[in-house]
Amino acid sequence: MVLLILLRHGESLWNRDGRFTGWTDVDLSENGIAEARHAARLLRDGGYTFDVAYTSVLKRAIRTLWIVMDDMDRMYVPVHRSWRLNEKSYGALQGLNKQETAEEYGAEQVHLWRRGYDVRPPPLLWDDPRHPRFDPRYAGQDPDALPATESLHDTLDRTLPYWHEQIAERLQDGKTVLISAHGNSLRALVKYLDAVPDEVIADLNIPTGYPLIYELDEGLHAVRHYYLGNPDEIARATAAVAEQATVPRG
Ligand SMILES: O=C(O)[C@H](O)COP(=O)(O)O
After folding, report:
1. Out of 9, 38, 131, 182, which one is annotated catalytic?
2. Could you tell me the pLDDT band of residue 247, with boundaries at 50, 70 and 90?
3. How far is 93 from 101, CA to CA, in rounded Å?
4. How many CB atoms lie within 10 A of CB 46?
5. Residue 85: CB atoms within 10 Å
6. Which side of the chain, N or C, has fewer Cβ within a 10 Å radius?
7. CATH code where residue 131 lies
8. Using CA positions, which residue lies closest to atom 8 of ligand 1?
């Protein structure tokens, strides 16, 4: 049995403000820092450790990982960063308030942009300064391969090669792997691990800051998974993610 620990970063400044973030490099809020520390405590108290860590190239996931490594006294663990673990690109929606966007375009449309498996939000234009081709951290990448927007399907398609080429091998070596990443890059991995059907994945939300443990067999098939933490708090935090872009009644 091998262990995989998935961790969505703590609350970011734009999570706090209810804004679409995607590939925007936004830091943790004070609350997000506390959530990361809480995640470390949950792991420590549960007797979990990890041998190698993977994260995105976005600071909310990296900083969450740093805090967990520091609080668990595992700063020495090897860390690998890849854009393939980045959040789903929210394209031209990045920076907009989710609730205001729902008021303007309708909650149904925004739900499709957020959760439709094959639905892409409006893209960033090629010359938009927010396009990742202008960002030095992607300088080594083919600019045509960098997303101007993504569906969850697109996110899965660019995450999976990294899983197969890098992460799976470590797990097969019997290492416990921690992945500190994002709501949608983790939803994509969960879809793959649990073979969640396209229409069902829309209802799956991942809260910030709660470790999600996967037990895998030797073939890396998921045997079971569970969150660490208080189930009522996790249920509330998960529901809050789902409801981020609803239009208030009345
Ligand atoms: O990029 C974002 O806005 C969030 O990290 C994930 O948002 P979502 O829950 O609206 O997909």
Report:
1. 9
2. confident
3. 8
4. 11
5. 28
6. C
7. 3.40.50.1240
8. 114
Q: Does the annotation count 87 as an active-site position?
A: yes
3-state secondary structure of 144: helix
- What is the pTM (predicted TM-score) of this model? 0.97
Which range marks the domain in which residue 171 is found?
2-245
The H-assigned helical ranges of the chain are 13-16, 30-45, 59-71, 98-105, 107-115, 152-162, 168-172, 183-194, 198-201, 231-242
Q: Which two tokens stand for residue 112?
A: 């499709």
> Would the annotation count 60 as a binding residue?
yes
The separation between CA 79 and the C-alpha centre of its own chain, rounded to angstroms, equals 17
Ligand 1 near 20 CB (within 6 A): yes
Give the nearest ligand 1 atom to 12 CA.
5
Angle separating helix axes 98-105 and 107-115, nearest 10 degrees: 120
Position 209 scores a pLDDT of 98
**ipTM score here?**
0.97
SS3 182: coil
Determine, yes or no, domain membership for 250. Answer: no
DSSP annotation of 79 = E
Alpha-carbon distance 187 to 200, whole Å? 11
Amino acid at 248: P
